[in-house]
Amino acid sequence: MRGLGHARKGAAALAAALLLLSLLMLSMLETSPMTPSPYNTYTLQALAWRKGQAFLDGDVPHLELAIYQGRYFVSFPPVPSVPVFLMTFLFGSNVPDGLLNLLYGLLALLVAYRLLLRKGFPAPSAAFWAFAGSLSSSLLPLLWSGAVWYQAQVLAFLLTLCAVERMEADRPVWGLLFYALSVGCRPFNALYGPLLFLLYMKERAGRGHSLKSSLLRLLPGILLGLFVALTYAAYNWLRFDNPFEFGHSHLPEFSFQGGTQFSIRHLGKNIREYVFSLPFDPSGGALRLKKFGFSLFLANPLLLLLPLWALRDALKRAFSLKQAAVLAFFFTHLFFLLLHRTFGGYQYGARYAADLLPYALLYLAAGERKKPAWPEIVLMLLGFALAVWGSLAIRL
After folding, report:
1. Residue 31, SS3 per DSSP
2. 8 Å CB contact between 42 and 84
3. DSSP 8-state assignment for residue 36
4. DSSP H helical segments within 30-122, as ranges?
5. Among the listed residues 99, 63, 100, 66, the one whose alpha carbon sits nearest the alpha carbon of residue 80
6. How many CB atoms lie within 10 A of CB 393?
7. Is the pTM of this model over 0.90?
8. What would the pLDDT profile of 38-63 be if each residue is shown by its tens digit?
9. Were 221 and a residue from 136, 145, 147, 176 both cysteine, which residue would form a disulfide, CB within 3.0 to 4.6 Å?
10. Gap between the Cα atoms of 197 and 376, Å rounded
């Protein structure tokens, strides 16, 4: 009972910390989560659904809309439109998408906290890593706006953490459903699927379960996930005559202006800018934060700790197969993200790197050390301070 009380106090402290931070940041940014974002693509899609349409009524020039056969379509995967669709019955076209994004962020903190508690972390340590691991990052500036890109990333982060936590709780139906939904926010999150499968099978084998019994337990979740994937495919076919096309290929910049969305040619430039670049632009005689990206490891210190943890564990010969799998999928996911032309465009640090944070939390949860060391605390707090400053300096 005492442990349960500590857990509840930790959850309440996380919620209170994010609430206070939100009040401060929104005041300094002079905005409100109740004000709909002008980049309200998901609201427009939800309103089109209510009319029985998969396309919008016309062009909205400041939005990234796909153009196909003379019609305008949302160029992003559809899952974030589902909660917005429900909210349109209360708010009509004025859905407070910023409030929705803050709610996703709060739930993500609580799920990360629950995951770490489940893996034996004391409540204070779990609360620290859940808060700092999530918000000392490129994710933090995304919480203060309901713009289409940020909704997709924050909701994907939440759903991925839900998938990890439910798989760790031996609830694979829910885990695989959350995983499938996360792919409907960020398609490259599909890479989490094989990892979750491998980790689940290894965990079950370690508890003496046979391969057959583990596969049978996974089967309902696999079938449910495949149904969700078929739903995406059908929606894509309805709109673009291609089950694998969510719409980005039909953006004007890629369809007839000559741009290339993903290419190995982008890799060298992106490594220079988003792996090794420093945060500050010294030009103009003033210290300014770079607005179009810098090292993902400096913007997301949890991702800097991940390879350092792996090196430490390897030197101590405490590097497990589970940790090796997490590290391998982390670098694979990072490689594919580095093929993108912009890695997030106008951003704090490297916005797409927020998709990688669950790998680091998974690695942390798999380790034996359950309390942060002082250098880790200092690094994460410095990262948090930089992310707060970045939120104000860049104003995503």
Report:
1. coil
2. yes
3. P
4. 41-50, 81-91, 97-118
5. 100
6. 14
7. yes
8. 999 999 999 999 999 999 999 999 99
9. 176
10. 30
